[in-house]
Amino acid sequence: MKKAKKEKVKKLKNKGIFSNIIFSMKQINKVDKWYVPLLFVLEILRIPQVFLFPYILMVIVDGIERGKDARDVILKAMLVTLICFIVRVLQMLVESNIDTYRKEKVIVSLQKKFYRNSLKIDYEKFESSETQDAFEKAKRALYQNGGMLTIVRSTAEFIGKIFSLAIAATIIIYINLWLGVIIFGLAIIKFFLNKYARKKEQTEYRDKLPNINRRISYTDNISRNLSIGKDLRIYKMDKFINKERDRTYTNFFGILKPYLIRETTVGSFINILEAIDLLAIYGFLIYAVLTKGMLIATFVYMLAAVREFAWSLDVMVLSSGDFMSCSYIIKDYREFYEMNVFEKKETSDHPSNKVEIEFKNVFYSYENQEGYALNDVSFKIKAGEKIALVGLNGAGKTTLVKLLCGFYKPTKGEILINGVNINQFSRKTFQELIAPVFQDNETIGMELRENISMSPREESDEEKIKQTLKIMDLTSKVDSLPEKEKAILSREFTDTGIELSGGEVQKLAIARAIYKAAPLVILDEPTAALDAFAEYNLYNNLSEFIGNSTAIYISHRLAVTKICDRVLLLDDGVLIESGSHNELMKKDTEYKKLFNIQAKYYKEGGALWKDSVVWEGILNISFQFY
Q1: What is the Cα–Cα distance from 150 to 323, expressed in whole angstroms?
Q2: CA distance 151 to 323
Q3: pLDDT at residue 238, as a whole number
Q4: For the chain, give me the number of helices (H) and strands (E)?
Q5: Tens digits of per-residue pLDDT, 258-307?
Q6: How far is Cα 25 from Cα 242, in angstroms, rounded to an integer?
Q7: Rounded to whole angstroms, how far apart are CA atoms 38 and 30?
Q8: DSSP states along 423-470
Q9: Which residues pair with 568 in a beta bridge?
Q10: What CA–CA distance (Å, rounded) separates 244 from 218?
Q11: 313 contacts 187 by C-beta, under 8 angstroms
């Protein structure tokens, strides 16, 4: 325990402010090698302006006060003004270059990299709320305010202010050393107040935000979610949603209120200290004019210099607060990448044109689950074999599929494909070996052809897409669309986009699997949204579509078992029966009981054959068992 605690402390030290500044600079430099150097150039260009502008005023006032030649005064003032103008123009050019193009380039590139890497997160771990919260916290490092860009910019400002401070301090010593001591002392008090506020902000506000923000985002977005829009309106769910939204916002304001009170209190104290700063500055300077004969021109310049000294200290104090806030955020970002949530890299490619599967004493338990979702499951599937995986709801069928696709890792036991443990497989291998159709089918807001090929349009095989559409009886639907295969499957981005019906979405998902032509096809409830006749046609043609590929059909509808070589029946996570349809029907099996329950509806529905609408409904129902 003590060793773990020491390692954690060491880990946190390794992600201190300085370490996070260097890390941020390296990350930004990978995107744009000029961004960070230009920030420092920008701060260097600001330094002379701070002292040159008041110097112009001092030259003019001094000329009037001493009765100097007007031409000399004007010439000197114009020369300094020209220098200021040139420096100012250079500053504006650099600042414009940073804030328009380069900053956006850095933000977009960092975000693109982050979201691309998010696809490498282990699917099983990404489902956990802990990973979701860590993801949300890490994402903050990519924002324009409060992340890597802010800490790097604050560093440049901080270093720039050190130079300004040194110049101003030299001038202050000329006036009175005690003035510098007072201003510096007040700055230290402001620093500790700011440090306290930033630490509390992180632990008592920002660390609690990710979960609440996800809830707010969900309740805000659900109102415009078309997939649930019909239910919201018919079932009057607006009251329920509004109540949940109110509860979420109550929690949000519950942590926001003390944060704002603390910020206001600390801010008020800092404002009081800044007022004392001003009183001290004016007091010492007026005293010098009245008692030491300081010229008005000198007074004007000294006032600017002393204000710059105080201002530089204030900026450094504020920068220290930014350093702490940003450092916490960047620490979250770095620790997210160090979490054990990404897919292991010690995997390798195992390409093959055939797939043989073996489950060896496989157990699987979900996080915080008592018992097992799959309990000591063992079976073999030969290459090219067609398997029907059946069972009641919650039997473990979908869990088994997720294990086979590599989304989950067995709690105990092992899964072999072609004799190799799938834990050794790279994600590329899974992508090449398996063509799955999952229960929750979704379309992407891109072209229809891209939704089938799952590739950029220029890499899609147009002829193969048309062939696949024909197989899935979608040709007439596509031909009726103004943009044919180029139609966008969403109305969110364009008025000409389309929304497919549930059955059409399911057909599209199957078309995707057919197009891929992988050696292992997994169809999880492939006909749940299809009508009985579409299901009949699909099953009649599936053998031709799938060919020699290994295939696993998961369904409540037992009609699929007739076209399969074997049936595997799961019950409460346990494989209780295995055999061909005919073999299981000859014995007193659970499978036989379930099949006969469904067959009963065929016989009762036969008398209603003439009413095709009624027959279609009964036929659909006849395949269901719960």
Answers
A1: 8
A2: 6
A3: 66
A4: 23, 10
A5: 888 888 888 888 788 878 877 877 777 777 777 777 777 777 777 777 77
A6: 44
A7: 15
A8: GGB-HHHHHHHEEEE-SS----SSBHHHHHH-S-GGGS-HHHHHHHHH
A9: 389, 578
A10: 10
A11: yes
